[in-house]
Amino acid sequence: MLNKFKSLIETKDQKALLKKAFIFSAIFHLAAVIFSEGFHRPDEHLGIFRLMSYKLGNFPESELSWEYGAQIRPWLQPYAFYIIAKVSNFLGIVNPFFIALILRFICSALGFYTLIKFTKFSLQYVKELSHQNLLIILLATMWYLPFFHARTSAENLSLSFFILGLIRVPRLNQSIKNCILAGLFFGISYILRFQTGVMVLFAVLWPLVARKIQIKYFIYTSVSICIAIALSTVIDYLGYGVWTFSSWNYVYQNIFKGVASGFGVSPWYYYFTKSLAKGIPPYSFFLVLPFLWMWIKKPFHFLTWVTLPFFIIHSAIGHKELRFIFALGIFAPVMIGMYLDENKKDWYKSKVLKIFIILAVVVNFTALLISSLKPAYTPISFYKHLYSKEEQVSTLYSLSLIRDELDFYQKEKFEQVYIKENKLQFIESLKNENQEKWIFTSNFNYILKLESIKRCNRDFSSYPSFLIKEKFSKVFKRSKIWTLYKCKN
């Protein structure tokens, strides 16, 4: 009876911890939605927002990227965003920054919901109550999750739907409904980002291989995945205007034609070194080392079965970007809890380890604050300035080429005239001209020269005015300071 009462108290305490931990996490998720404007990688804008804008009639088909012509981009996400933007416009919301805020909120809310579900799902793999509580805290406070969930990227949404399918895998035997839902979520996850299909495949095969599912339930799940893919093909037709199979097109272009390798090739160990560096040491060690322990010590565990093939295939592909394996990070706290369960030593008594852990905690919360409260793409402030200006810029003379121009955020698209050569001569010519010109540069030396021209006034800068001084030239000589000047006639 005493043990039963103790268990009841522990359960209540854990529920209270879950509530507090995810209230804390919700605050940072909301902060990231509001403040982390822009994108993590340009693909988020070029591959999704431009397709949405094209469908809205605001972007010409001729200027879409090569992916559109090759029909390798699934339309599921851009079309969903198109519907949300269309509804927003109908309600009188036309400001692109506010529409982007709505989209970030939807993506973040879904990510936050799946994080709660995944945390509760993961508790079954960790036995000790104290280690379960640590697992809850780690998942609720991971520094990059609020930032990642606020991204309107395929990587983020694909992981969210994968988690919704994953938590149903142990219950596939219980009902056909679980099989259908798991299959639909897995299918959507695959369509959003084809690479996630590796995790989907092994997640669905595992209960069959482990003999924890009857073949009929495996068939129900597989058929449900195929239905999701078939529905996505219909959406691709609505997007492209012709029948096509974007997942095959993707494989053909990137694997057989080797297009992906044209964007750069990295060695097989890239993900190890990059994860340690970009995850921010010493915190990053707690993101990487648990996987090595899990894959070596528990090669037949469900979590190994799901994560290891995904990692191996991505390591074997020449073109690598860290965002491609972001989906793995969420599993690290679970593996830490499992490790502690099996290594019940007084590890916490080590002074060196204590210092290491304290540093990791400080790094984590510092990174959590910064990543949640600053723009994901700093130059977004430049586009906000252009959008809010009464006098719109039609022609922009650029001393620094604006790559991956964010058309979605422009009230009126400006023509960019890039001054590729004789830039100093061009700046000098401005002194004697009478023609009105808008000049853009992000080079500190060019900024200082433009400051010296009386008829050219600084209209915008991503850095405060007091820093734009000759005495700071050595400090900021490599910095990109987005600055706009208006040279009067």
Secondary structure blueprint with pairings:
Blueprint: H1 2-35, H2 43-56, H3 66-70, H4 76-90, H5 96-122, H6 129-141, H7 145-149, H8 154-166, H9 176-192, H10 197-209, H11 215-240, H12 246-256, H13 270-278, H14 285-297, H15 302-316, H16 332-342, H17 351-373, H18 380-388, E1 395-398, E2 415-418, H19 423-429, E3 437-441, H20 444-451, E4 456-461, H21 473-476, E5 483-487
Parallel strand pairs: 1-2, 1-3
Antiparallel strand pairs: 3-5, 4-5
Report on the structure:
The protein contains 21 helices and 5 strands. The protein has helices at 2-35, 43-56, 66-70, 76-90, 96-122, 129-141, 145-149, 154-166, 176-192, 197-209, 215-240, 246-256, 270-278, 285-297, 302-316, 332-342, 351-373, 380-388, 423-429, 444-451, 473-476, and strands at residues 395-398, 415-418, 437-441, 456-461, 483-487. Helix 1 (2-35) crosses helix 17. 33% of the residues are buried. A 5-stranded mixed beta sheet has the order 2-1-3-5-4. Among the domains are: 13-152, no CATH class; 380-487, no CATH class. The protein is mainly alpha-helical and 489 residues long. It is globular, with a radius of gyration of 26 Å.
Quick recap:
The protein has 489 residues and is mainly alpha-helical.
Annotation keywords:
mainly alpha; 60% helix; single chain; 5 strands; five-stranded mixed sheet; 489 residues; globular; 21 helices; 5% strand; disordered N terminus
What is the alpha-carbon Rg in Å? 26 Å
Unreliable stretches, pLDDT < 50, 5 or more residues?
1-9
Structural classification:
mainly alpha
**Main sheet specs:** 5 strands, mixed
Count of helical regions: 21
Distance between the termini: 89 Å
Tell me the β content.
Answer: under 5%
Q: Could you estimate the helical fraction of the residues in percent?
A: 55-70%
Mean pLDDT: 92
Query: How many strand segments?
Result: 5
List the strand order in the largest sheet.
2-1-3-5-4
Overall geometry comes to globular
